[in-house]
């Protein structure tokens, strides 16, 4: 059941988190635009639309949309082939229409079949990418553009060899500012009285400190002063006419060009998959364990890309880096994403000269801490303790996300997860048959003998339709294998929504089921046809009986 959301209910924490995301998003929007071979303001336009429009239309509470590094190669190739930016914008316009149609066709439901260990592996992989890519900026070496996530860089080096190049280009002023920023950020999380200053985020204090330090170095004539090329570089329009020239509209005459449609379909597919992956990841990060309607999300992204193209902006997706920064900053609702978009709009129109004083080293330090939280050692330990069926897909996804890209890494992780599931003893799977029930009835949900991650969508739907003030018995006595994803889903339902909506939940047999989850003896082979057939069958039955809650 969907609750009506009051966007202003958590304005204090959402404003602080929106401010942090704004600081993180600004150089990323500029860097991705630069790498895509487009006007710098095209990245800002996409960030503003992604924050305000998509943020408002989306049902996700912590995800943030904007230009994505995963689309840079597609954009650069397309613009080179077309020879005109306005022709490319026609592709973005069509891509938005396709995403809108996918949302109405309920294509977003495929996100329910992404395994948790693969999503967590993707997040950890992105965390490592952030650390690898931002360390050079923290040392004052800005040869690579902000927002780059490619293992193999444009100059032929890779993320690891590039770190050794940093040793020959260390900027002492950037190192001093990075260390000062790091001390501020850690202190804001660890020192009790500073943690209570939620309205003033540590990232903002670190940015202000970085600007003040560098201005002191400049005016004192110190050799530690950071040069202009190591600061944020936002275009500064000198007149209203110059600003109007930034806004470019699509060339609608190019609609008959077959290549425009090929690029549009490519953007729509890649952007939609990346969005669904990021939304699933954002839901996993959400402390309140709220679920996002992914079909609504696709429609929101489609509208966002249509508007972005009409104003001369880049295509966008939901982005893990910004969403992670949003979550870490304490966002409570989607108001934080909207605020970040508003701040982007106001700042680039009113104070671009001030923003251009921000050292990239400070922003790099903020992102490095975000990366660490995504790839912290506790996550590796967690999946190691879950056994090889959880750990191997997690690590494989992580490695391939870092070494290739997000989509290839996730695809490999899902393939490995399916292979492991097929090796399990899948004699019976979980599904459900919806039945009518009356107020006061005890709803019984009997889990089948085998429950895999592919059954997560059906179970999530069942749990979402349980009415308020009801009584539910979830029985796993006969269950020999239950996927970790399903266990998390049921546990989160019991500990969050059930409490909020006065649903009394009784679990039976889950200790035994959990112990069997990682049993090395679950290794029988079954055919893929049998697996998909039995994955559609199971039992949810309603009984009016007396249960002791």
Automatic annotation (TrEMBL):
InterPro entries to which the protein is assigned, alphabetical: SLC26A/SulP_dom, SLC26A/SulP_fam
Pfam families the UniProt entry points to: Sulfate_transp
UniProt KW keywords: Membrane, Transmembrane, Transmembrane helix
Residue ranges crossing the lipid bilayer per the database entry: 41-57, 64-82, 88-105, 117-135, 166-187, 199-219, 260-282, 303-321, 358-375, 395-422
Annotated membrane topology: Multi-pass membrane protein
Primary location: membrane
Occurrences of domain SLC26A/SulP transporter (ranges): 11-397
Compartment(s) of residence: Membrane
Domain of life: Bacteria
Name by which UniProt lists this protein: SulP family inorganic anion transporter
């Amino acid at each position: 059941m969907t609750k009506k959301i009051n966007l202003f209910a958590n304005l204090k924490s959402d404003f602080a988190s929106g401010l942090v995301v704004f600081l993180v998003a600004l150089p990323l929007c500029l860097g991705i635009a630069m790498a895509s071979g487009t006007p710098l303001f095209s990245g800002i336009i996409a960030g503003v639309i992604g924050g305000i429009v998509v943020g408002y239309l989306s049902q996700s509470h912590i995800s943030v949309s904007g230009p994505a590094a995963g689309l840079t190669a597609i954009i650069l190739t397309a613009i080179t082939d077309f020879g005109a930016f306005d022709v490319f914008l026609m592709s973005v316009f069509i891509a938005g229409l396709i995403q809108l149609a996918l949302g109405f066709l309920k294509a977003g439901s495929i996100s329910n079949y992404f395994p948790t260990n693969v999503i967590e592996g993707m997040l950890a992989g992105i965390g490592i990418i952030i650390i690898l890519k931002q360390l050079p900026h923290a040392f004052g070496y800005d040869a690579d553009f902000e927002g780059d996530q490619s293992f193999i860089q444009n100059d032929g080096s890779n993320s690891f060899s590039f770190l050794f190049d940093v040793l020959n280009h260390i900027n002492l002023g950037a190192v001093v500012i990075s260390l000062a920023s790091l001390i501020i950020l850690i202190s804001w999380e660890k020192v009790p009285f500073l943690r209570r200053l939620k309205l003033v985020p540590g990232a903002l204090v670190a940015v202000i400190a970085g600007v003040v330090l560098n201005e002191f170095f400049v005016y004192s004539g110190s050799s530690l002063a950071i040069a202009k090329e190591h600061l944020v570089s936002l275009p500064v329009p000198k007149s209203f006419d110059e600003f109007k020239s930034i806004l470019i509209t699509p060339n609608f005459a190019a609609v008959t060009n077959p290549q425009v449609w090929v690029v549009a379909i490519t953007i729509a597919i890649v952007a939609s998959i990346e969005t669904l992956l990021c939304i699933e990841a954002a839901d996993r990060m959400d402390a309140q364990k709220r679920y996002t309607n992914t079909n609504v999300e696709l429609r929101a992204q489609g509208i966002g890309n249509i508007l972005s193209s009409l104003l001369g902006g880049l295509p966008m997706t939901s982005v893990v880096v910004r969403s992670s920064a949003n979550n870490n900053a304490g966002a409570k609702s989607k108001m934080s994403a909207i605020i970040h978009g508003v701040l982007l709009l106001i700042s680039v129109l009113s104070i671009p000269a001030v923003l251009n004083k921000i050292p990239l080293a400070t922003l790099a330090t903020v992102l490095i801490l975000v990366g660490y939280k995504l790839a912290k050692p506790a996550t590796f330990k967690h999946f190691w303790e879950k056994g090889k069926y959880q750990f191997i897909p997690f690590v494989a996804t992580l490695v391939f996300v870092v070494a290739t890209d997000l989509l290839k890494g996730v695809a490999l992780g899902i393939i490995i997860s399916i292979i492991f599931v097929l090796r399990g003893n899948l004699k019976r799977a979980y599904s459900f048959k919806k039945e009518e029930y009356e107020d006061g009835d005890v709803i019984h949900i009997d889990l089948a003998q085998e429950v895999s991650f592919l059954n997560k969508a059906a179970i999530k739907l069942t749990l979402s339709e349980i009415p308020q003030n009801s009584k539910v018995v979830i029985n796993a006595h006969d269950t020999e294998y239950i996927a970790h994803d399903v266990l998390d889903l049921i546990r989160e339902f019991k500990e969050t929504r059930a409490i909020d909506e006065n649903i009394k939940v009784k679990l039976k047999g889950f200790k035994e089921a959990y112990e069997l989850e990682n049993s090395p003896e679950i290794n029988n082979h079954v055919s893929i046809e049998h697996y998909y057939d039995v994955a559609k069958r199971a039992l949810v039955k309603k009984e009016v009986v007396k249960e002791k809650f």
